[in-house]
Specification:
With 739 residues, the chain is of the alpha/beta class. The termini are far apart.
């Protein structure tokens, strides 16, 4: 136990201190105590935040702010958040707390020089609601000076979440990178995979540069392959700043680590793996002749889990001439038309299944991956955002392809191989015979009948006719976002321009294509669930949308319909108009924060002429913990079905933003917590005789999850078209074994 009141040194933290300092801090201290090369540091406990509030007499003021704010008013909520932050910034550190922090900080520096440190939050509980407030906060680098450190601590506290804060001495890296004690591209457990860049590692993890790649056999430490990538720029520390600097000409094409250095690093990684008995995702740095471990976390998702029989069938093809060569980052082979993405404007042209080619990936582009058949990037490595997200979604991806956006042209047909990193020329015509043979191999079996219904997740109207030929029970998730993105104008801007009829007609036209193609099979239309950052990218969006720090938890879903019913009514008008002709159209409401919200939305729908009844079913998405905890309260409001949105539900149950590099490894759709939630909801729905389904991407990826759901007696499973055959087979076998 710490002798100090607020500060823990790495040398004194024990595993049972996790509730006081968080698992991230416990992991670092554990490795430090075992002799691993961890930068010196200390941890400020959450108790410091509690006493800071109490001794500044802020408890009552903060409670008053929380009581008076109207949470349904986005401007009031933002204003309250700003007031809270200002109060924290103006408050003074209690004497004892300030002295403890500065004493610990002083020990990291020299006699006449204050240390440069990295500061990051350590979530005390992965499922704590407080963790959501920190999803947008990254590590603060190169902080120097007592005043700067205290200001940074306040920055984390101003979110309103009392977390532990890790302070570590900065490593002035000559080279840095990320390593896995498993090969993330194919799941080989006997390899160590290392990526390396010059300077600090942040340019690598953000996907802005392509790294060197080294494969090492984990047991013998024999180097199996070395791939060197030229690097023109690096991130360096100068004074109190972190900035980009040009790499010297002699080093630009030089290998980042020597053979001896690769072996030395691999040996450290081997020992970390042996200690944890589980594959690790590790950030490292090299400075003044020594390697340092900056962070280690378990690997929970590997490409091996995502590969399926369809991909194995495609691998039998003999590719043509290689056009481009990069690094295979997410396995699978896919053929499609190229779509070059140079700016967000190009995204409006994207059609489902195209090969999207980017200069680099920024987080705001990731939502569009769901439309891609495959992804290619000029820059980045297998630990970049593009690679990690495509592996989670099961989309083939090749990264680090030099000048792909210049060498490929829109509309060209290529075959992308995410296993070996090759992009090869292809044509539909020359491979037509082979395509037909492949279709037979992966085509869903029309003769197979299952008790569990199988629906499709669809978005693009042009794919409706072909998708309707598949042996599905209907559409379990019709996404509105693609059709609205195609229109390209923010609905508020549409209203301001007096173009409501044009907007409604366009949306009606898209929905009708699905209803016509699938009639009389049901089509479940999910109302729009754009987040504010996505809406801002539509024409006129910046005028009407707030700039939110965490859009995922912000102005979206049912809350948005209630706050701005005039926009929601445009959508309802399109649905009502389609239902005049097609009675197979039903609706699903996403992201519902309370039973009261659901009742309010139902009243808006009724006023628009849409009443729940025998021919019009109303569904609700299950994607928030409150939907699980209060499931019976939601069911009593009067709904016909629920469908699990596994992506958001997993993130919110585990308190983990899967788009955040620091915590992505904790994202696990097969977590026992997720299974518990599924079981609780399915049982409640059986009691109330309510239909159950799942439409999240996990059902298209994990056979284990499908088997679990069939065992629970879920009514239906809704999946992507390309996984229908595999899912059909898994359900059939699971039902047979459960008899």
């Amino acid at each position: 136990m710490s002798k100090l009141k607020y500060i823990f040194g790495f040398e004194e933290i024990e595993s049972d201190n996790a509730q006081e300092v968080g698992p991230k801090a416990v992991s670092l201290s554990e490795m430090a105590q075992l002799g691993f090369p961890i930068p010196q540091g200390f941890v400020i406990s959450p108790r410091a935040f509690e006493d800071f509030i109490e001794q500044n007499n802020l408890n009552k003021t903060l409670r008053d702010i929380a009581k008076t704010v109207n949470k349904e008013n986005i401007k009031e909520t933002q204003s309250a958040s700003s007031n809270f932050s200002r109060l924290i910034q103006k408050a003074n550190f209690p004497k004892e707390l300030k002295e403890e922090i500065l004493e610990a900080y002083g020990k990291l520096g020299g006699l006449f020089k204050q240390a440069h440190v990295a500061v990051r939050p350590s979530l005390v509980s992965q499922d704590s609601a407080k963790s959501n407030a920190l999803g947008h906060l990254n590590t603060s680098l190169n902080i120097q000076g007592e005043a700067s450190l205290l200001e940074t601590v306040k920055k984390y506290w101003s979110t309103g979440a009392g977390v532990a804060i890790i302070v570590q001495k900065m490593v002035e890296a000559e080279s840095a990178g990320v390593a896995f004690t498993i090969d993330p591209t194919d799941g080989n457990k006997h390899r160590v995979f290392i990526e390396a860049v010059w300077g600090q590692g942040e340019l690598l993890t953000s996907g802005q540069i392509s790294p060197d790649k080294y494969l090492v056999e984990r047991h013998s430490l024999k180097i199996e392959s070395i791939s060197v990538s030229p690097q023109k720029y690096q991130l360096v520390l100068t004074g109190n700043t972190v900035h980009t600097k040009r790499v010297s000409a002699r080093k630009q094409k030089k290998q980042k680590l020597t053979v001896d250095q690769i072996t030395s690093l691999a040996k450290i990684l081997q020992m970390v793996h042996a200690h944890y008995y589980f594959p690790q995702d590790i950030e490292w740095a090299f400075s003044h002749g020594q390697f340092y471990i900056l962070h280690a976390r378990p690997v929970t998702t590997t490409s091996q889990q995502m590969a399926d029989s369809n991909q194995l069938a495609i691998e039998s093809r003999k590719p043509k001439a290689v056009l481009l060569k990069g690094q295979g980052a997410s396995p699978g082979i896919v053929k499609g038309h190229v779509r070059i993405i140079k700016s967000r404007k190009d995204l409006s042209k994207v059609k489902k299944g195209e090969i999207l080619v980017f200069e680099k990936i920024t987080p705001d582009l990731i939502p569009f991956f769901k439309l891609a058949g495959g992804v290619v990037t000029n820059q980045g490595g297998v630990t970049s955002h593009a690679a990690l997200i495509t592996r989670e979604l099961g989309i083939p991806c090749v990264v680090g392809v030099d000048n792909a956006t210049r060498k490929l042209k829109d509309g060209v047909v290529v075959t992308l191989n995410g296993n070996n990193g090759e992009v090869t020329e292809s044509t539909w015509k020359t491979e037509q015979k082979q395509e037909k043979q492949l279709e037979v191999e992966i085509k869903p079996n029309q003769e197979i009948k299952t008790v569990t219904k199988i629906y499709l997740n669809l978005a693009e109207p042009e794919e409706a006719k072909e998708a309707a030929k598949l042996p599905s029970a209907g559409i379990g998730l019709l996404r509105a976002e693609f059709m609205i993105s195609e229109f390209g104008v923010h609905p508020r801007h549409v209203i301001a321009q007096g173009r409501q009829k044009e907007y409604v007609d366009k949306l009606k036209e898209g929905i009708e294509k699905f209803c016509l193609a699938f009639n009389p099979r049901p089509v479940i239309y999910r109302a729009t669930d754009f987040k504010s950052n996505e809406y801002r990218n539509l024409q006129g969006g910046k005028t009407y949308e707030p700039e939110e720090d965490n859009p995922m938890l912000g102005f979206r879903g049912a809350f948005r319909y209630i706050a701005d019913p005039e926009v929601f009514e445009l959508e309802l008008a399109a649905v009502r108009s389609v239902r005049e002709k097609y009675k197979n159209l039903h609706m699903m409401i996403p992201y519902v924060r309370s039973p009261e919200e659901l009742l309010h939305v139902k009243r808006i729908m009724a006023a628009a002429g849409l009443y729940r009844g025998a021919s019009f079913k109303l569904w609700m998405m299950i994607e928030l913990p409150i939907n699980v905890i209060m499931i019976e309260d939601f069911l009593r409001t009067g709904i016909d079905g629920v469908s699990f949105g596994s992506n958001d539900l997993t993130m919110l149950l585990l308190g983990t933003d899967r788009d955040n590099n620091d915590v992505r490894a904790a994202y696990n759709e097969l977590s026992p917590a997720v299974f518990w939630a599924l079981e609780k909801v399915v049982k409640a729905c059986k009691k109330y005789k309510i239909e159950t389904s799942i439409c999240g991407s996990a059902a298209s990826v994990y056979d284990t999850l499908i088997e679990k759901l069939v065992g629970l007696g879920i009514g239906s499973i809704s999946v992507s078209s390309d996984s229908l055959g595999r899912v059909q087979k898994v359900i059939y076998e699971a039902e047979k074994s459960n008899k």
